[in-house]
Amino acid sequence: MSTAPAGTDSRARNGGGVGRTGQRGRVAHPSRKERAALGKAVRAELPRSSHAGWEPPAGRRDPVAVLEEQAQSRLPELVPIGNGRMLVSPFTFYRGTAALMAADLAATPRTRLHAQLCGDAHLSNFGAFAAPDRRLIFGLDDFDETLPGPFEWDVKRLVASFAIAGRDRGFDAKQRAPVNLIVGRSYREAMSSFAQMRALDLWYARLDVEELSKRWASRATAKQQKRFDRRVAKARTKDSLGASARLTRVIDGRPRIVSDPPLIVPIEELLPPEERTAFEDTVRNVIRSYRRTLPSDRRHLLERFHYADAARKVVGVGSVGTRTWIVLMLGNDDGDPLFLQLKEAEPSALEPYLGKSKFAQHGQRVVEGQRLMQAASDIMLGWFRTPNIDGTRRDFYVRQLWDGKGSAEIAAMEPSAMAAYAELCGWTLAHAHARSGDAVAISAYLGSGTAFDRALASFAEDYADQNERDYAAFRDATDSGRIAAQTGL
Fold first, then answer.
1. What's the CA gap between 191 and 471, in Å, rounded?
2. Degrees, nearest 5: CA angle 378-384-387
3. Please, is 252 exposed, middle or buried when counting C-beta atoms within 10 Å of its C-beta (0-12, 13-18, 19+)?
4. What is the DSSP string of 279-313?
5. Which of 163, 138, 151, 148 is nearest to 424 (CA)?
């Protein structure tokens, strides 16, 4: 990498449906009655039952070709790791196919009720994280694909993920059916509640993990409650101190990031000695560029830390191959660490179908979308643009590596636990959409009946069938050597 100023310019091309900005920047304020009428008018145009079922359209692209195209912009030596992670099961495959599903959803009828979309709202992209007041809250935690678009695209991806995860857990159709319905019902009922709220109350609403624990205790078995408490306790240890204890060791009197190739590779193993000093100077310049995107109080906080070390890190499933760095910063002394993650932000997988982001800088697109959808966000969120080691200009966003992050143990869920988790995810997604979209209009479209819930549950099972067919094609491509997969990492 070599430094360049952060790109903060924007293109007013894709804000439609999220705001109601009129001519000359004036914001329209239709009445509640007018907003409800809009939702009902859209329902007349596109009945809720139209969302049911799934059949691949004629001329649907080869799913493996879509994934091969996605891999072209990624580090070729890391792509086989991502393929290996996707190869584990149809569920892990689904986690890496946001681009494939975006193409499929683009071929279906869509509403004109827009919200800020996550773009990859599967159940593993929800979890716990620390709010600025240090309380753990539950919410969406992945925004790489965020973009404004039809609200139902996120809901369909979420419901389908539950159907696929249920199959992965060995649940039969009778066990999966109520879980699939709960996702849509929870989303619909939550949106109805948000439609009645005062604007400030809606904005402040959030799910505190402590409150969830109290609610969960009355419904969970002793074993489930113990597992839940263990996951929460683990999340509380995931901060910069925990990251430092796990990821660094003292070498020649200085804390250094440990090597664990190919998943973590310190900079000294990536570059020859003569290039390392120049690179570290570049990292310092990048941090200064990123610092300018922070509010002044957080900029002041960041200035208390200095650069100590950096390494390349492999993250996630669908993100493997994107350029991701972890940077160790130190404050008062070696026991005062701040671990930052610098992650490449590529164009959203939704852009070919919904238009380009209004933000020309994709790191900013991710950060602005995250701030809009989350009840509370990491205080260190920011972005920068810089040429990478290969000289190509790339966009990045920055956040703390660990900040109370915790995830549900999907692989151990029983049907009752998955149903409870479905309720949480449905509420959370509705809240994210209500913050950015029109809760009154969306609620009026959804109505008080179960038509939407049943339609999406039908879609979910059909799309789970499609996912299994795509996974089989992907597995055949790895067996034949068409694509490389490295497993066990």
1. 34
2. 145
3. exposed
4. HHHHHHHHHHHHHTTS-HHHHHHHTT-EEEEEEEE
5. 138
Given pLDDT bands bounded at 50, 70 and 90, which one contains residue 167?
very high
Please check the confidence at residue 168 and state whether its pLDDT lies above 70: yes
Tokens of 445: 């479209």
Alpha helices, H only, 338-437: 351-354, 362-373, 415-436
Q: Are 118 and 144 within 8 A, CB to CB?
A: no
Taking the C-alpha atoms of residue 415 and residue 180, their distance in angstroms, rounded to an integer, is 11
CA angle 60, 62, 64 (to 5 degrees): 145
Q: Which two tokens stand for residue 168?
A: 């992965």
pLDDT 10s digits, 338-370: 999 999 999 999 999 999 999 999 999 999 999
Tell me the three state secondary structure of residue 242: helix
Contacts of 115 (CB under 8 A, 6+ apart): 17, 18, 148, 149, 151, 154, 432, 433, 434, 436, 437, 442
Report the pLDDT averaged over residues 272-295. 90
Q: Which residues contact 423 (CB under 8 A, 6 or more apart)?
A: 182, 186
Alpha-carbon span 192 to 92, nearest angstrom: 33
Letter for the amino acid at 375? A
Across residues 14-30, what is the average pLDDT? 62
CA angle 202, 417, 205 (to 5 degrees): 10
